Amino acid sequence: MLSQVYSASALGLIFACVRARDSSIFLCIAAHALFDFFFVISSQGNVSQGLADLEQVVTGMLVTGSIALALGLFLLWRTDSRVAGSV
Question: Could you tell me the pTM of the whole model?
Answer without folding.
Answer: 0.62
